[in-house]
Amino acid sequence: MNRQTVTSSGALRQRSTASRATTLPRGVVIAAVVVLLVQWLALGAWAASWLTSDGSGENSMPPLGHDLRVYWTVSWMTTHLGAMSAFHPDMLDAAQLQFFPAYTELGHWLYPPTFQWLIQPLSWLPYPRTYAIYFAASVALFALAVMQWRRWAGWPWLMVMAFPGLWVAVMVGQNSIMTLLLMTVALTQSGGRPLLAGVCAGLLVIKPQFALLLPLWWLCGKQWRALGTMVLTGGVCCVLALLWGGWSLWEAFFAAVATFNAEIVQQGAGDIWHAMPTVFAMARLQGATLPTAYVVYGLVAVPSVLFTAWLWVKQAPLPLRVAAAMIATLLIQPYLLYYELAWLIVPLLCLAVPTDPAPADSRHPDVPRGQWNRLGDLLLALAWVLPLQAYLAVLWTPMGQWGVWILPALMLLIVVRARRWRHPRLT
Predict the structure, then answer these.
(1) pTM of structure
(2) Measuring CA to CA, which of 137, 145, 189, 254 is 20 to 30 A from 283?
(3) What per-residue confidence (pLDDT) applies to 94?
(4) Does pLDDT of 3 surpass 50?
C-alpha cells in the first residue's frame, strides 16, 4: 500500500488523546453555554405557547416542526387518500389547513416515494406525540453521527450539542439530522466497514441529491465494496418503493420536482432565495440572469468537486477527505436551505483533528501556528454559528445569507490544510 495513505483510525485515536489535553479557551466554552441556553429558551417558549393554545384557528400558536407538519400530513393522506394525493397541491393545501390552521404558510411535497413510504407511520400518533418522538430521535441520531469525530477532535460534548445546526433542524422539523448520520457513516467507514458505509449511502435515496457525488469519491478512492453495496441498497429501496406505489407515483414526483425547480428555485417565488445560502441564490438576488447564475455557481462547485476528487485519489488523511466531501456536497446544490447546514458539525470536527502536515515517512515538524491559523480559527467559529445566522436571515432578510461566503471559504481552508500535508516546507 502507498505510504501516503489515509490516516488510520488508530493514528486518529492516538492524536485525539493529545488533543483532549488541550482545553478550549474559557470564552469559547462560555459562549457555547450562552448559545445553547438561548436556543433552549426559544424552543421551550415556543413549545409552551403551542401546547397551551387551542390550535384551532389561524391566530393560535403554530406547532413546532414546520416541515414535520408536512410529513405528518402526507402520512395521513397516504394512509387515507392514497399515495398519489400528496402530489395534488390543492388536496395537500386543504389537508394542511385542516390539521394545522395556525400555519398559513403551506408546504410543498417534493420527496421521492422511498421517503414517502418511510414516513407513512408518522400519523399513527397525534402530532404532538409524533414531534416529541422526532425530537428525541433527532438528538440521539445527532449524537451518534458526531460521536467518533468528537472523540478524535477532542471536543467536549457541550460544544457539540450546543451547535445551532442541531436545534435549527429540530425546530423546523427537517430530516437533515438523518441525512447527516447516513453521510457521515458512509464517508468515515468506507475503508474499514465498506458494507456498512454502502448501506448508509444507499439509504440516501430518501434525499438523492446528497448522494450524487459519493460514487465519484469512491471511484477515486477505489472503494469498490462500498460502491457496490451502495448501488445494491439504493436499487432495492427504489424497487420496493416502486412495488409499493407504482411507476405513476415516481412520475408524479419527477413532475413536481421539475415544476418546483422552474417556478421556485429558478424564479424565486415565495422569496425562497433569502433562505438559500448558495452562490446561485445570491447571484439571482443580485439580478443575474439564469444562465449567469448557473455559471457563477459552476465556478464554485466544479473546482470544489475536482479538488475533493483529487484528495480521494491521493489518499489524503481521512479528516481532509471527509470534510471536503461534505462541504463539496453542500456547494454543488443550487437549491439548499438553511437547515441543511446541520451537516457542518462534522467538517468542523474533522478540521479540529490533528493530521500529518506531510506524508507518513516525512520527518518534518508540525507547522507552527501563525496568522493563517488564527484566521482559520475565526472562520471555524463563524461556521459553528452559521446555521443560527442562516435562520435569522430568513426572519430578517437584509442580513443576508453568510453561508454564501463561508462555505467556499471552508473549502479554501481545506485546500490550505492539504497543501501543508503535501508540502510542509512551503508552509
Answers:
(1) 0.90
(2) 254
(3) 95
(4) no
Question: From CA 120, how far away is CA 77, in angstroms rounded?
Answer: 9
Instruction: Using the predicted structure, report yes or no on whether residue 65 has a pLDDT greater than 60.
Output: yes
CB atoms within 10 A of CB 423: 12
- What does each C-alpha distance from 161 to 96, 136, 147, 291 come to in angstroms? 32, 13, 11, 41
The pLDDT of residue 38 is 85
For 136-155, letters b (16+ CB in 10 Å) and e give eebeebbbebbebbbbbbbb
Q: Half-sphere exposure of 45 toward its Cβ, with a 13 Å CA cutoff?
A: 6
Greatest extent of the chain over all pairs of C-alpha atoms, in Å:
70
Higher pLDDT, 233 or 59: 233
With cell 473546482, the residue in question is: 303
Angle between the N-to-C axes of helices 127-153 and 66-80, in degrees from 0 to 180, rounded to the nearest 10: 130
